[in-house]
Amino acid sequence: MKPYKVLLYYFYSLIDNPEQYREEHHLLCLQLNLLGRVIVAPEGINGTISGLTADCEAYMNTLKADPRFTGIAFKVDETDTHTFQKLHVRVKAEIVHSDLPVDPLRQTGIHLEPEEFRKLKDDPDVVLVDMRSNYEHEVGKFKGAITFDMENLRELPDHVHELDHLRDKKIITYCTGGIKCEKASAYLLAQGFENVYQLHGGIIRYGLETGGEDFEGECYVFDNRVTVPVNHINPVTVSVCFRCNKPTSRMINCASPLCNNHITLCEECGNEHGGTCTNACKQDPHLRAYDGTGYYGKQTQSYSPIQGYKSRQGQRTEVNLSGSPLEA
């Protein structure tokens, strides 16, 4: 068993005072030495965090005990260390930015548990639809799934017509952890699609609970790992190296900060070209040192998780774990 855990979760629930809860939640993460990203909105909470096993257990128990989050489910993975370099707890208008005119608290597609999905996915009347961004599904997706050339979920209305010929099918949407599908499936229902389902818990939960059968490639994740393996039953590689076209699921950010594109780059080309996707990027005078991972966090020499804590009065301050101001 590895010493650290990575938690991926979301929950739609009305939060009356998101800013106040953001502050409470920020302090909880500080007390438990957690790092990662958490979004609080009037419609609920969405987060990915990492920490020591005992701290993550305490965090999960705290959220489960909150009446607003009854039924919250966590996708839990193991890792050797933190998968984040910083802690951000922010208030936003939505827990996943979509601008779609839907309310998941009122209507969504039918939730399929991972084993139900596994049994249903090959039915000839079923169509799998990937609701993730193009750079995500390029490195991995379910066999035979329909994908859209979109940068984010806000672009879904521009692509719904691509499913018009499938209105008589059972449509199952999926994404990384399930959150995008709550709104995407609701939007399809609003557009007149009748048989709409969604993979509950997303790709990550499917891999953890069923072994990931028929997920081809790797799953893009929003932390230092960049991608993770999902399929331990019949894995294949679907992406190729951006430079040499050799099959690889190894995704990095281009070492040129002016580019910073998500690209699949094999280990050999990464070493030969310093983690860049083109020769032009290789000439960038501000080229970042390539360490083999292709992940470039912001400079953290002076970073502390308690920096920039935002008080209830909206003043920036630093606080200790009891919530009182720290002296400079």
What does this structure look like?
- By secondary structure, this protein is an alpha/beta fold.
- The chain has three domains: 4-95, Alpha-Beta Plaits (2-Layer Sandwich); 110-218, 3-Layer(aba) Sandwich (Oxidized Rhodanese, domain 1); 241-293, no CATH class.
- It contains eight helices and 16 strands.
- Strands 4-1-3-2-5 form a five-stranded mixed sheet, with helices on both faces. The protein has a four-stranded parallel sheet with strand order 6-10-9-7. The chain has a three-stranded antiparallel sheet with strand order 8-11-12.
- Helix 3 crosses helix 6 (202-210).
- 40% of the residues are buried.
Give the structure's gist in a few sentences:
This protein is α/β, with parallel strands linked by helices and 328 residues long.
Strand order of the largest sheet: 4-1-3-2-5
- Please describe the biggest sheet, giving its number of strands, its sense, and whether it closes into a barrel: 5 strands, mixed
Catalogue the unreliable spans.
Answer: 310-328
- Radius of gyration based on Cα positions: 21 Å
List the quaternary state of the chains: single chain
| Share of helical residues | 10-25%
Assign the CATH superfamily of the largest domain: Rhodanese-like domain
